Amino acid sequence: MALWDLANADCIITMGSNMAENHPIAFRFAVEAQRRGATLIHVDPRFTRTGALCNIHAPIRSGSDIAFLGGIIHQILERDLWFRDFALAYTNIAHIIEDGYVDPEDNDGIFSGFEAGTKAYKQETWQYKGKIVPSSIAEHRVQTQDQTQGGDFESMTEGPPPTDPTLQHPNCVYQIMKRHFRRYTPEMVERVTGCPAATFLKIVEVLAQNSGRERTSAFCYAVGWTHHTYGVQIIRAATIIQGLLGNVGRPGGGIMALRGHTSIQGSTDIPTLYNMLPTYLPQPNVFHQHDTLQDYLHTETPTTGWWANMPKYMVSLLKAWYGAEAHAGNEWGYQHLPKLTGDVSQLPMTLAMLDGVVKGQFILGQNPVVGAVNSDLVERGMARLDWLVVRDFAMTETANFWQKGRLVQRGELQPRDIGTEIFFIPTALAGEKDGTVTNTSRLVQWHDKVLEAPGDSRSDLWFIYHLGKRLKQLYADSTEPRDAAIQALTWLYPERDERAEPDPEAVLREINGYTVVDRKQIPSYQQLKDDGSTACGGWMYCGIYPRDGHNVSRSRIADTRDVAASNHHGWAFAWPSNRRTLYNRASADPAGVPWSERKKLVWWDPQENKWTGGDVPDFIETRPPDYRPDWSKRPHGMDAHGGDDPFIMEADGKCQLFVPSGLKDGPLPTYYEPPETPVKNAFYGQQHNPVAKLWQRKGNELHAPEDPRFPYVFTTYRLTELHCGGIIGRVTPHTAELQPEAFVEISPELAAELGIRHTEWAVLSTLRGDIEARAMVTERITPFQIDGRTVHQVGMPWVFGWEGYARGDIANVLLAITGDANTSIHSTKALTCNLRPGRLAQRGGTGHG
Amino acid sequence: MADHAQAALACLDRALREKPDVDGKVFSEAAKALSQLRNDLADRQRRDGASADSRRQLEHVNAVISVVLGAHFPLGNIPWAEVEKARGWLAELSSADGTGQLQ
């Protein structure tokens, strides 16, 4: 959903985010919704400025989100609070799952298909009965059945998945969900999360009352949901709620992923992620059936739904990258693409640095010594590199760890023993370069350079472009096959000033795409082809530069405030197709009529025979609501979707309450404790996510549950005043003055118990390390009653380091390297620690307070 | 170099014999030995100049490292068949009755 669409919501639940402080621009739309009468709810361990501005604050213990959300699902199902007309028509609630499916309720916390040796799931028993359902998301591909290894995506073309619209079949999704969530009672929610049952039930009432034909509700989340070993499943739980309540594809309805400020959305679209090619195409994997382009496309392309167009996007991408060197005779250059062998995301590669595998590292727009978990291990890994390039506008802890790092300060390493050659290169700030930022609404906005970067500072684009140029020169005469990719790469961007800055609009034009024969800009991705006649650097961005001289992301036409134009279509470009609300076909009922006048967005115009309304329809524009696939013809692609199937990126066009393929840790969210926790899992014998990525090694140990050495729940967060990883605010006097040093937030009750006084020193400890900080004794944090006993919560900002005016110990020293089962993202929001008054001995303290 | 190759071989043999769960520390040990071997080969190539043999050895060791990383940090199941194959390449490189390149 679009950020401004939050103003159309009747209820907004912010959870996993301190939105008012960390996304203040976005939060004004929540405030506007409140001004219009919406109820704002904040579910969070701390009572922050977000909670203060909301109508209801519900405190929960860090990491217990799935118990809370599962409790909402339980209430919706048991009390028939769901939007039946919406969910029956548009979700897979009536679909029948394979007989072999076994729920964690019947297997003590484990889904069927689990292989203990590899700690991985096979997904055969999660499928629709008689079908093999392709996953629509490249990022979450699971090594299980695929088309050339026994799977059969063609089964999706044989007929619709089996359903029971009466919802009586014991293995229909509705019945499975009822059984799965039956123990998520209000009492259980209180027992596990610490949130009073009355507060929880009040939230359920408000949410249900503000959902349906006339009203819609939204969820907002940030990394408070993602940074767990089960982060994807927390978001999945919200997806189920919104699917059941009909809050998808409609004005004011949806799930708002509050993404980072520095174009984090853009860096997944045109990715810096290891496992994706631009705009969500899967990176080839050497262990999959990806030997040839034909194999790759056959294996990865879903047979039904919009993703059946994937070959057009892939071939066009290869043409954009390799130009004339990409032709039918060489698989369009497919063999130039590096193929994965394993998980090479940041966490495993930090461990690989320790093993000596990685020789060098580029750091752009990041400060991992502060921002990455287990800071000491990060330092140890970087100390083993041959070379390290850090680009930033001010000195960072990552660039001078060899001199001022914790290991050097403690005498564990001497600078002379660190062989890493470090290149610190000054970079231009946002106002010193032009280009785009893609925000959380998929909105790509152009910004112009307003002044020249000082001295040798250059944009990241300049750096990458000139690095590429030099590499191409270096390998120009090579006869090694491995160098062919660099030789073939198109790298012709106009240089426009004495600094030889490449033209960023030229890059955007290439990302948009063009016809190969006459290099004309392509106006929409529907015109991309798989015959080599089109080139496109990212299919979802197609239309952003539809013709020469027309950069749509520059557009700044103000909203007229007319209802039909309230989606701000004249403001920049939202991918795809400048569409503001994805799956907006769901804003109309199966017959194409808006669910209500108050919440209308897109509808079928029977006179014009097309979809129309206040947004670009996310549907085939001329497909009537009563269109049905002709299964006798084995339909593929969109031919296999009906006119009432809004979720076009899914293989069957339905919102997936139950996910047959694509998730590595189960088709439904289920409750696990974090890897480190002071309590046992109240739901199952299975304590934590069985497929979580845990890498226990020296310096990265985890303790067992209920370890008395680490009794307190610990969480980390950002501060408004110290932007992003902190350095930008810490080196600026005005903001540094506002948050002058690190602190740890503790409740008055815990402070009294431990003898810690406000503003005095305290020491925090985990198995990874010890740090010290000033105590902030505050009623913003309250103790929880968990399973009959008091559990204290502690929190600390992670944005401090030893550089800048505002300094303090690095909270990430305390954290372990663990990863989400699906995304490998680190876990920063729920772990345990010990706490005592006083200072660290090496800082002059006694060690005992 | 031969020591590193033998150490890596021993790790891979142990991994194949024990088939450990994910995060088997044996893969970490194998990666360390293989990285040392790669570094020594690269140093020798820089010192003595590249030859077809030295390039082939480096390529094979790098390929083995890639497979070991894939087993250490798997995307899905551990690719045991490929680990077995990689073990074969390494054994070929370090075999006493072969060319003795790593001696």
Any overview of this molecule?
The complex is a heterodimer of chains A (849) and B (103). Chain A has 849 residues and is of the alpha/beta class. Among the domains of chain A are: 163 residues, Dimethylsulfoxide Reductase, domain 2; 151 residues, Barwin-like endoglucanases. Helix content of chain A is 23%, strand content 14%. Chain A has 24 helices and 29 strands. In chain A, the strands form 10 sheets. Chain A has a 6-stranded mixed β-sheet with strand order 22-24-23-29-21-27. Chain A has a 5-stranded parallel β-sheet with strand order 3-2-1-6-7. The longest helix of chain A is centred in the N-terminal third of the chain and has 15 residues. About 1% of the residues of chain A have low confidence. Chain B is mainly α and 103 residues long. Chain B has one domain. Chain B is 75% helix and 0% strand. Chain B contains 4 helices and no strands. Chain B is elongated, with a radius of gyration of 13 Å. The termini of chain B are close together. About 5% of the residues of chain B have low confidence.
Our Rg estimate of chain A from Cα atoms comes to 27 Å
Strand content of chain B: under 5%
Low-confidence region ranges of chain A? 143-148
The level of helicity of chain B is: over 70%
Count the E strands of chain A: 29
CATH architect. name of the domain at 3-88 and 184-260 in chain A: 3-Layer(aba) Sandwich
The overall strand count of chain B is 0
Largest sheet of chain A: 6 strands, mixed
What pair of chains forms the biggest interface?
Answer: A-B, 31 and 29 residues
Q: Tell me the series of helices and strands of chain B, N- to C-terminal.
A: HHHH
Strand percentage of chain A: 5-15%
